[in-house]
Write a structure and sequence with these properties.
Layout (H helix, E strand, L loop, with lengths): L1 H12 L7 E6 L5 E6 L1 E3 L4 E2 L13 H13 L9 H4 L13 H5 L56 H15 L3 H10 L27
Antiparallel strand pairs: 1-2, 3-4
Helix pairs in contact: 2-5, 2-6
């Protein structure tokens, strides 16, 4: 199967000189094919390798959702548990009807710190609020905790970044443990994601894309 996987990668990456990243195809056995191209750091022209670590931004929402579903499986919360029942008073104007299910499904209507339908430059947020100062979910609350509901819970779908900050706070409240430790111990370890982690943006770990730029 290695040759099959290699052929797939070769066809997909043919003439893709502008591609910066890693492509991996693997199965449950030992067959694995990988391709790395581009620069992990442009100033010093450090090449990407197959073990380079990348920031995945909103890709981390999946890890938060997994931990929430684990807590539901453990019987510690339910999909219809109200957000205000777990973290009352954190969001000043959130409806008492907002449930964990609403937040997971992006149908909560709760306030957000970056609405992608209204804003197109994510970097504006961090001009006076450096991202490297965000060490836990609560650190983002000043950006949106006083905001108004955008619509009634369940009324429609609207992608919501802030809702997953709320889920992170719920995880910490239920478990008494920081979110990053929760994810590391209950998601990364169980999935054998040995290189995954939560780095400060001004102190990225070895072999991380952009590491030499972060000063």
């Amino acid at each position: 199967m290695y040759r099959v996987y290699q052929n797939i990668i070769e066809k997909a990456t043919m003439d893709q000189n502008d591609f910066h990243g890693v492509v991996t195809i693997a199965d449950l056995g030992n067959d694995r094919a990988e391709y790395a191209n581009g620069l992990a750091e442009r100033v010093f022209e450090v090449p990407i390798n197959t073990d380079t670590r990348f920031g995945i931004a909103s890709g981390t929402k999946g890890f938060t959702a997994i931990r929430i579903l684990q807590l539901i499986e453990e019987g510690r919360i339910q999909l219809d548990t109200k957000v205000n029942d777990i973290i009352p008073g954190v969001f000043k104007n959130i409806s008492d009807r907002v449930t964990i299910k609403h937040v997971l499904m992006h149908t909560s209507g709760m306030p957000d710190y970056f609405n992608e339908e209204e804003m197109d430059d994510f970097s504006v947020l961090w001009k006076d609020f450096p991202m490297y100062n965000v060490l836990s979910p609560k650190d983002l609350l000043p950006l949106f905790s006083d905001g108004q509901m955008r619509f009634e819970p369940g009324e429609k779908f609207e992608y919501n970044n802030g809702g997953f900050i709320a889920l992170g706070l719920i995880i910490e409240k239920i478990t008494g443990q920081a979110l990053d430790h929760n994810i590391h111990n209950n998601v990364f370890k169980r999935a054998e994601m040995k290189s995954a982690g939560f780095d400060r943006l001004d102190a990225l770990s070895h072999n991380s894309a952009g590491r030499l730029c972060q000063r």
